[in-house]
Design goal:
With 136 residues, the chain is α+β, with helices and mostly antiparallel strands. It has seven helices and four strands; from the N terminus they run E-H-H-E-H-H-E-H-H-E-H. The chain has helices at 13-17, 21-30, 45-51, 61-68, 83-91, 104-108, 123-134, and strands spanning 4-11, 34-41, 73-81, 117-119. The protein binds adenosine-3',5'-cyclic-monophosphate.
């Protein structure tokens, strides 16, 4: 049974700053993802705080929100079968040190904060996150 899904992907400031956003986008396309929506934006810290609200109580929340709003990001809606899970596999572990060979974070991630990409962690959150950035 086909299970076409959409998921939200963010190419984070560390990657956009190094001009590797197109290389990362190509990695998604090579794995069969279609980029159905895309925009390059810079968000306010208050918007980052809303986006990452699930992490509100974590010790890294403030730094995380400062970081995501520190420079331009590329926000994309990716589509394919099992997009949510396959995107997580392609990104690799949150900490680039733990990410497997062939993953985006292994190849481009600098640290647990500057880990180059964000991806929705469930189908439910994918819908919420897509709506957050592409409501209009
Ligand atoms: P992301 O997938 O965007 O979701 C939340 C982000 O918090 C995560 O990637 C990391 O970049 C960042 N982060 C910083 N410290 C931690 C930590 N100890 N555990 C998980 N995520 C962390």
């Amino acid at each position: 049974m086909s299970n076409i899904e959409q998921t939200l992907s963010i190419i984070k400031p560390d990657a956009v700053e190094r001009n590797i956003d197109n290389e990362i986008k190509q990695m998604f396309k090579n794995k069969g993802f279609s980029v159905v929506k895309e925009k390059k934006i810079q968000i306010e810290k208050s918007e980052a705080e809303k986006f990452y609200k699930v992490h509100e109580t974590k010790p890294f929340y403030n730094d995380l929100c400062s970081y995501l709003s520190s420079g331009p990001i590329v926000v994309m809606v990716l589509e394919k079968e099992n997009a949510v899970l396959d995107n997580r596999k392609l990104m690799g572990a949150t900490n680039p040190k733990d990410a497997e060979e062939g993953t985006i974070r292994r190849k481009y991630g600098i640290s647990i904060d500057k880990n180059s990409v964000h991806g929705s962690d469930s189908d439910e959150n994918a819908k919420i996150e897509i709506d957050f950035f592409f409501r209009d």
